[in-house]
């Protein structure tokens, strides 16, 4: 499911995972269910960006409709 909400733009600058999720109006639980991880795991990735594996970052990028290089996950 792709939540590319054109009416809610994400900055052209790098944004953190939590900010992008909130801009999209999504709950952590909804995102975690849709990308196949626990909401606790997503919480950790949002709080500690350096812990996000590339394969999860790619899922989040696709789900949020934001290019991978546009958000800070490392």
TrEMBL record:
<feature type="domain" description="HTH cro/C1-type">
    <location>
        <begin position="17"/>
        <end position="71"/>
    </location>
</feature>
<protein>
    <submittedName>
        <fullName>Helix-turn-helix transcriptional regulator</fullName>
    </submittedName>
</protein>
<dbReference type="InterPro" id="IPR010982">
    <property type="entry name" value="Lambda_DNA-bd_dom_sf"/>
</dbReference>
<dbReference type="InterPro" id="IPR001387">
    <property type="entry name" value="Cro/C1-type_HTH"/>
</dbReference>
<dbReference type="Pfam" id="PF01381">
    <property type="entry name" value="HTH_3"/>
</dbReference>
């Amino acid at each position: 499911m792709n939540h590319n909400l054109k009416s809610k733009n994400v900055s052209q600058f790098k944004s953190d995972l939590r900010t992008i999720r909130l801009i999209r109006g999504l709950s952590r639980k909804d995102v975690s269910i849709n990308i196949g991880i626990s909401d606790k795991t997503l919480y950790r990735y949002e709080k500690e960006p350096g812990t996000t594996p590339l394969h999860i970052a790619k899922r989040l990028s696709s789900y949020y409709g934001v290019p991978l290089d546009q958000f800070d996950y490392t």
